[in-house]
Protein backbone atom coordinates (compact mmCIF):
# COMPACT_ATOMS: atom_id res chain seq x y z
CA UNK A 1 0.00 0.00 0.00
CA UNK A 2 1.32 3.43 -0.97
CA UNK A 3 1.21 6.20 1.62
CA UNK A 4 0.75 9.79 0.49
CA UNK A 5 2.27 12.47 2.69
CA UNK A 6 -0.33 15.07 3.81
CA UNK A 7 2.06 17.90 2.84
CA UNK A 8 1.86 16.80 -0.79
CA UNK A 9 -1.94 17.22 -1.00
CA UNK A 10 -3.55 20.41 -2.35
CA UNK A 11 -7.33 20.69 -2.29
CA UNK A 12 -8.83 23.50 -4.39
CA UNK A 13 -12.43 24.56 -3.79
CA UNK A 14 -14.73 26.99 -5.54
CA UNK A 15 -15.89 28.71 -2.36
CA UNK A 16 -14.90 29.22 1.25
CA UNK A 17 -17.80 27.22 2.71
CA UNK A 18 -16.87 24.14 0.71
CA UNK A 19 -13.25 24.47 1.78
CA UNK A 20 -14.27 24.57 5.47
CA UNK A 21 -16.50 21.51 5.01
CA UNK A 22 -13.74 19.53 3.27
CA UNK A 23 -11.27 20.41 6.01
CA UNK A 24 -13.78 19.20 8.60
CA UNK A 25 -14.26 15.90 6.75
CA UNK A 26 -10.53 15.34 6.29
CA UNK A 27 -9.97 15.96 10.00
CA UNK A 28 -12.68 13.44 10.86
CA UNK A 29 -10.94 10.86 8.66
CA UNK A 30 -7.30 11.51 9.48
CA UNK A 31 -7.15 13.34 12.81
CA UNK A 32 -4.11 15.54 13.52
CA UNK A 33 -2.48 14.77 10.19
CA UNK A 34 -5.19 16.84 8.48
CA UNK A 35 -3.46 20.04 9.64
CA UNK A 36 -0.69 19.32 7.13
CA UNK A 37 -3.09 19.14 4.12
CA UNK A 38 -3.42 22.41 2.19
CA UNK A 39 -7.02 23.36 1.32
CA UNK A 40 -7.88 26.68 -0.27
CA UNK A 41 -10.05 28.41 -2.82
CA UNK A 42 -8.89 29.27 -6.33
CA UNK A 43 -8.62 32.91 -5.29
CA UNK A 44 -6.63 31.87 -2.22
CA UNK A 45 -4.19 29.99 -4.43
CA UNK A 46 -3.88 32.99 -6.74
CA UNK A 47 -3.18 35.26 -3.75
CA UNK A 48 -0.56 32.86 -2.38
CA UNK A 49 1.27 32.54 -5.71
CA UNK A 50 1.21 36.25 -6.56
CA UNK A 51 1.79 37.46 -3.00
CA UNK A 52 -1.29 39.70 -3.15
CA UNK A 53 -3.88 40.26 -0.47
CA UNK A 54 -7.53 41.30 -0.48
CA UNK A 55 -6.71 44.90 0.37
CA UNK A 56 -4.32 46.79 -1.86
CA UNK A 57 -1.52 47.93 0.48
CA UNK A 58 -1.07 51.23 -1.37
CA UNK A 59 -4.66 52.37 -1.84
CA UNK A 60 -6.45 50.38 0.87
CA UNK A 61 -9.06 49.43 -1.74
CA UNK A 62 -10.42 45.96 -2.37
CA UNK A 63 -7.87 44.13 -4.51
CA UNK A 64 -10.06 41.05 -5.01
CA UNK A 65 -11.10 41.78 -8.63
CA UNK A 66 -7.48 42.00 -9.76
CA UNK A 67 -6.29 38.73 -8.24
CA UNK A 68 -7.19 36.41 -11.13
CA UNK A 69 -5.71 38.71 -13.84
CA UNK A 70 -2.52 38.90 -11.77
CA UNK A 71 -2.44 35.14 -11.53
CA UNK A 72 -2.84 34.93 -15.31
CA UNK A 73 0.63 36.43 -15.75
CA UNK A 74 2.07 33.27 -14.16
CA UNK A 75 0.59 30.97 -16.79
CA UNK A 76 2.57 30.14 -19.95
CA UNK A 77 -0.12 31.65 -22.18
CA UNK A 78 -0.66 35.14 -23.52
CA UNK A 79 -2.20 37.47 -20.94
CA UNK A 80 -5.66 37.56 -22.58
CA UNK A 81 -5.88 33.78 -22.92
CA UNK A 82 -4.57 33.22 -19.38
CA UNK A 83 -7.20 35.52 -17.88
CA UNK A 84 -9.94 33.86 -19.94
CA UNK A 85 -8.72 30.40 -18.91
CA UNK A 86 -8.71 31.29 -15.20
CA UNK A 87 -12.16 32.85 -15.41
CA UNK A 88 -13.50 29.63 -16.98
CA UNK A 89 -11.67 27.54 -14.41
CA UNK A 90 -13.09 29.59 -11.55
CA UNK A 91 -16.56 29.80 -13.14
CA UNK A 92 -17.02 33.58 -13.31
TrEMBL record:
Classification via InterPro entries: P-loop_NTPase (IPR027417), UvrD-like_ATP-bd (IPR014016)
Keywords for this protein: ATP-binding, Helicase, Hydrolase, Nucleotide-binding
Gene3D superfamilies, alphabetized: P-loop containing nucleotide triphosphate hydrolases
Annotated ranges, domain UvrD-like helicase ATP-binding: 2-50
Presence of the UniProt keyword Glycoprotein in the record: no
Single annotated GO MF: hydrolase activity
One Pfam family here: UvrD-helicase
Protein name in the entry: UvrD-like helicase ATP-binding domain-containing protein
Organism: Desulfobacter latus
Lineage: Bacteria, Pseudomonadati, Thermodesulfobacteriota, Desulfobacteria, Desulfobacterales
